[in-house]
Structure prediction request, 185 residues.
Amino acid sequence: ERLWLAPANDDHWPDDRRVVRINMGLAFGTGEHPTTALCLEWLERHVAQGMTLLDYGCGSGILGLAALALGARFAYAVDNDDQALTATSANAALDGVTDRIFIGAPDLLPAVAVDVLTANILAGTIIELAPALAKRVVPGGMLVLSGILEPQVRLVAEAYAPYVTETAQTARDGWVCLTGRVRGG
Prediction:
């Protein structure tokens, strides 16, 4: 409703949408896969002016770039894959937001806590990283976890139960996006 995803060479989009241009095919994250679409839909409904976001496992950078287009003040995009970091850098330059995004490997991430953390990666990795990811979100901030198959939801929810309240889930084509508000204190 608020966002328009466009290939890098497309110069035509609706005037009433915020545009994110992507070099298609350089890394995971064109917006078409159900896991990415679920995250983008959540971002459209919840990103407010001035927020900060960390996209853990950024792929093409689409989630961080979408948050910036929707009004986030700053985004952090991290990935273990050099090709993903190259794609995110290229897409940030294409969208003119290189001054509002950190792009790097997870071990280079500054000591920050953000308003929203997205992780659209494999469920096993999401479970393994539960304590580390929860620490990267301010109390009252949101975790948005996707890349989860329906049979894996219970295990992911259990791993995050000590860290979040107000959990919710949405599903599409057998994939789930699980969200939760990080506990205060």
In short: Residues 3 and 18 are 5 Å apart (CA to CA). The mean pLDDT is 91. The longest strand covers residues 137-149. Residues 34-46 form the longest helix (13 residues).
